[in-house]
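Fold it.
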Amino acid sequence: MMNSTIKFLIFFFSVTTAQPLKGQNQLIFSDQRLAVVYPIIQKFKNIISADPLGITKTWVGPNICNYTGFYCESPPDNSSAIALASIDFNGFQLSALTLDGFLDQLPDIAIFHANSNNFGGTLSPKIANLFYLYELDISNNQFSGPFPSPILGMNSLNILDIRFNSFTGSIPPQLFTKDQLDALFINNNNFMQMLPDNIAISHVTYLTLANNRFFGPIPHSISKILSSLSEILLLNNLLTGCLPYEIGFLNEAVVFDAGNNRLTGPLPFSLGCLENIEMLNFAGNQMYGMVPDVICALENLANLSLSDNYFTGFGPICLRLIENGVLDLRNNCIPGFPFQRSIAECVAFFAYPRYCPHMASYTYIPCWLSNFKTPSLDLPELAP
């Protein structure tokens, strides 16, 4: 009797466990490449702990190309094949402890966007084997730990967006020497290091370093380091020291924002050479001196923010910008001007000697301006 019962149970469990496998074998995929990623997707689906929008309800059956967030194309190595080429999870609010075992197992993936979810953990070293991946966006998630070093081995990557996470430590210098990298968004993390000075040999067009903990001075090589950028965002860091004369050679800059740092010294007249600049922000620093009219005369300037510093005066051209709402000089040390710091604050600040190196360079204009001229300046070590 006991042997019969055992044989029945063995037969029952073998039949019931075999049914799902039989059903899975009946799935018909439009391409073998899709059959390969199907179990990977289903495994990832099972570890998703929150799906408030019901996205994963569509991740059923062999038609992977119709899953919400999944997109198929022909892979570069076979124009007649169909493969999972891109994923767009932006704003899906999915939660999972890790992307390991999912992203790193998608051999044909070219674009992966996962902005504004609740993914965490680290990135697997195996992502370096994703030979087609050229856009990686994991911004606004819960990733932490050091900079994901496997990214350094990705030779196809053009766009990297890891902003609004909790990465810490320093950024490997090799990142800034990757010639194929066009856009690098690393703002709003907790990176702490001196401002990198080796971006010069990179071809980065878009770079945001804001809202981290970069410290030290802005390097004199800035005219080479950031020469190709139209937006230079250094705000909300721990930068110190005086502005370098070479900042006036950032000819492509439309926005230069270094607000809320610890910068000091006067504004260099060379800023008047930023012919494309529309927004210039040095608010929330420890800068002082006169606001040069040559800067206020910039033709495209729409916003000049110098509040919360220790400036002591301005010229007639700057007055027009104040009247037009372009120039903000609130909370400075300008005698007789409204909304300024208290006398006690200003006296306390100027009680200590203030000095910047290469002081002669601050009144030098390195470009031709019909209304402003300065004598020639021999600064070979500062030349761009």
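The helical segments are 2-25, 32-47, 222-225, 293-296, 316-323, 343-350.
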